[in-house]
Every structure is written in structure tokens, then in C-alpha cells.
Amino acid sequence: MSRDLSYNAVMARRGEIMKKALGIEYDEFIQSEIAFDYEGMMEKAGYSLDKVRQIQQQTGVGNTPLLELKNITRLVRKTSKKGYGASILVKDEAANPSGSFKDRRASVSVYHAKKLGYPGVLAATSGNYGAAVASQANMMNLGCIIVQEVFDSRHLGQPEIIEKSRKCEAYGAEVVQLTVGPELFYSALIMLEETGYFNASLYSPFGISGVETLGYELVEQVRARYGKDPAYIVVTHAGGGNVTGTARGALKAGAVNSNIIGASVDLSGLHMASDIDFNKKSFTTGHTGFGVPFATWPDRTDVPKNAARPLRYLDRYVTVTQGEVFYVTEALAHVEGLERGPAGNTSLAAAIPLARQLPEDEIVVVQETEYTGAGKHPQAQLDFARRNGVKVIRGEPKQNVPGKVIAIPENFSQLDITEMDLERMRRSYIRNAVTRNNVTEVTQEELGFLAEDAKASPAFVASVLEGLGVKV
Amino acid sequence: MSEACKQGEWVEIHYVVLKPEERSHDVPDDTKKVPLECWIKGWALSSGTTGGQIEIRTPANRIVKGTLTRVNPGYAHTFGPGVPELSSVGRELKAMLKEGN
């Protein structure tokens, strides 16, 4: 048996390899070049909320504590106008078996792989998801390969990612460490073909339905303790699965009035696939380098139709700076006694200025924390930044320049957010849907799909299409 | 300094996945100039010396060939040295909590 392993040959086989490695017949849900039955796919290919809860119970995932950050809330009130400053609560997802909410995502994929008889699972990820898949695979007696983007061409890796490699190896997984580049996907395809493993994609319906329990649980917990729904649910946004799953779960719990607010670290100007820019980032996840492209074109992943579709759920999308997240990570440890993050604290950094916008009796939920470790720590990450030519100063958040300056705020009142223009992102999504599919005309049904997928009115979609010269 | 491994020892190997000219057309120019490289750990299938070619069996039971880079590889990442810009943040916030109470 000799397979052609050249880049072009493997990429040409991608559809076939993926179909075998996922076991989902996407064709069943695809309605046209543009439209597909999203809810049908989530329902038929994924698992119900009750089933997911059952699966997660078996492996100790979920039911994490919801903690009220009393001292941070006091600091918020001290820096708000009178009567303002909502209570901030945090869902302590670091309490999951491998230390992050990613266990929720991994649990369903690994369960499904086991059920279908795959010998193992493979995930392409440099994030906490790798450890989550490795941990769940051990619980299910499956093999595990994690493919990571770790180094630049100098063989220099960010301490945060090195730690994530170590953690996967601590679980006994095979860790494939690559240099920068999107061809990571090509390497993953070769290994899927070679091993017959299941593709534990971050973007399958399994992964997303696994996060729904997070949104559902937090609403239940807030209601039981405070007798109301949270005003804001703040979610660190990268690839879109965290936003999508959490929002779907909150909606399933009936929290229709809770605003879903995505938060990313601003890394504008840094190219994600650039060998030189790679180590200029001090955050390897939760940043705009994933947050913007994945929201404006979700179908750029390893699956034919991405189950993570954040634009459907985002009420607002805000950014914070790297310096603010490091500052808030210190705050969480020093005044709340919780050493967590840093990357997972992106939503906490955003929640502080957001809570200032609300009256005192409202509730803001930060829906995750993540474990801290060697390398995955403000000191390690700032030291690495400094050694890679990034200036670290105390200063106002607006002094941050991604890849050049990290400004640690001088005081708590400086913590702020920058509002992203969601309307512009919706427009960008519609343009991508049309141009990437080479479409010059859309049907009323397709227009309806675009409106739903972009959470926009049909009139808005029609006007954007008209501007693009696309006929309806 | 070269290191030797015995058969069955835990080692790390390196190989080039794609040469610069084989890389995807859509990578940025700086990335296109360098190869896509890979490091994997596993158990040595024979004895060997760093810098030489060797085969390993990976934890997922694959057999992979490459250049031996490390024997009994460990981890050197740390919590980092003290960062002056962070060291007083906790104290400042605790002082702020005490104000006006």
C-alpha cells in the first residue's frame, strides 16, 4: 500500500479522509451552495442536552462551581458612577478534569468515537483542547494524537504552548509539534489516514453540543442563587465554539434576555500564519486573530460545515488589550484567591468595564477560567514577550500595540473595552458567503439562511447583496 | 555534545514535513522561506546518536523516522522571572479595597 503523501495529493483526498474520520454525512444537511440546515445538523448529528449531561457525568466533566467575585465587584463599584457596578460571577471551569471548559467539548467527541468503534482520536490544536482530548481518551481507553503548532523557524516556542504540549504528554498522548503554518492540517490528514482515528474536530456538532451544558448550567445556578437571569454572559471568543455552545445552552435554559458578549484580546496587525509574527503574540488563543476570521467566515475549518457560528449568537463583541488581561489575572489571584489563566481571563477583563455599565442589582457572568501552570503564567509570558523585542510598561491600555508594546494598566479604573462593529462583521460574513462560493444570484431561501446565520434582518442582507451586485 | 540512546529509550526526533518549495501557496512570504518542521517523541527502535537517523514507536503506536534530537527529553519552561511591572499590582488593589471602608 503506497499512498501519495505530497501536499496536493493529500489535500485532494481531504473530503474522503474527513468523511471517514468524522462519520457525519454533511450532504444530508447541505441545501445549496450557500444554505444548509444548521439546526437539523445540530439535532441529528449531535447529541441532546440531556444526553450530553449524562455523558459528561460519566467522566467528571461539568457541574463546576459558580463563584461570586466579591472583591472585584467592590473594585468595580468603587470605579463606577453611584448605583452602578453589577455583581461579577465566574464559572470556575478550571475545575474540570484537565483544567478548562474544553473538557466539555472533548467529552462528547471522544464518547462518540468510542461508540463508533474508532481506535483513537486525533485533534489539531495548540490550546487547552489537546489536554482535554487526551484526558478524555484515557477515560475511554482510546489512543490519542494531538497535532500542535508550537515553534517558529528558530525552534522557539511560546511557553504557553510548550506547557500545553507537556500536559498532553503527561496524559500519554502522542504530541506532534510543528512549526508555524496552516499545513498543520495536511499533517493531521496524513495521520488520520494512517491510523483510522476519529477527528475530534473543535468544529463538529459534538464539540459544540458539549459546550451547551456550560450555558445551561450557569443560567440554572444564577437563577437558583439570585432568582433572576444574568444580564450579560461574557465569553472569551476565538474559534467561535465557546460563544456558540454557551449561547445555545443559555437559550435552551430559556435565558432569552441575557446578552451574549464575546471578548477577544486585540492582536490586530499580527498575521497568524507568519513565522516572524508568531512569537510576537503574547496570547496564543482568545484573540482577534481567530475571533474575527472565524466569525466572518466560519467554514474555514477542518469540517465541511462548521457547527460554531458565533455571529448567530453574539449581541456584542468587544476587545481588550494583552496588558489588561495580565493585570486582571493578577487581580483574580491577589484579591479573589484564584490563580487562573491568563488567556481564559480575557472575558473577565471585559466583564469589569461591562459591569460598570449596569446597575448594582444586575449580574454579569464570566463563563470560564482555565488552569495556570509553568509557561501558562503572566510572568513567563511577559518575560518571553520582552525577550522577543516586545516592550512591557505600566501605562494606559491605549498604549498597547500588538507585537510591540504591552501596557499593564496603572490602576483599576483604566480597564476598558473597545466595541467591535458587529454590523460590519455581518456585512463581511455575507460578502464571504457569496464570494467564496462564487455566487451571483441567491434565492429567497438562501437570503433567509444568510439572515439567520448573520443574525441580521432580511432587509439588511438584501441591501448588502445589492451592494455586492448579487441578484435575489 | 552528542548523546546516545539505547533501544527502548524515550527520545525525540525531528524531520522536515515540507520543504520551502512544497509549502501551501497561501502562507505569508516569511513562512514560505522556511520548511515546515516536526518534532515527535517516542521509544527508540534501535540504539542511536543525536544527529543520526533513527526510528521510533510513538505513543499512538506509529513508527516514524527522523533525526535523533534528544534522549529522555524533559521540559525547561518555567513560571518565569519576576516582572517589575506586575509585582505591585496585588498590593495596589488591596490598598484600594481598604480605602473608604
Characterize the structure shown.
Chain A has 472 residues and is of the alpha/beta class. Chain A has 3 domains: 154 residues, Rossmann fold (3-Layer(aba) Sandwich); 253 residues, Rossmann fold; 46 residues. Chain A is 44% helix and 13% strand. Chain A contains 18 helices and 13 strands. In chain A, helix 11 links the parallel strand 7 and strand 8. Chain A starts with 6 loop residues before the first helix and ends in a 5-residue tail after the last helix. Chain B has 101 residues and is of the alpha+beta class. Chain B has one domain: SH3 type barrels (Roll). Helix content of chain B is 18%, strand content 36%. In chain B, strand 5 and strand 6 form a beta hairpin. Chain B is elongated. The termini of chain B are far apart. The model of chain B has no long low-confidence stretch (mean pLDDT 96). The interface between A and B is large, with 65 and 45 residues. Strand 5 of chain A pairs antiparallel with strand 3 of chain B.
Largest sheet of chain B: 4 strands, antiparallel, barrel
Tell me roughly what share of residues is in helical segments of chain A: 40-55%
Q: What is the radius of gyration of chain B?
A: 23 Å
Mean pLDDT of chain A: 96
What is the CA-atom radius of gyration of chain A, in angstroms? Answer: 21 Å
CATH topology of chain B: SH3 type barrels
The CATH architecture classification of the largest domain in chain A is 3-Layer(aba) Sandwich
Q: What share of the residues of chain B does DSSP label as strand, in percent?
A: 35-45%
Query: Count the strands of chain A?
Result: 13
Q: What kind of oligomer do you see?
A: heterodimer
**CATH class identity of the largest domain in chain A:** Alpha Beta
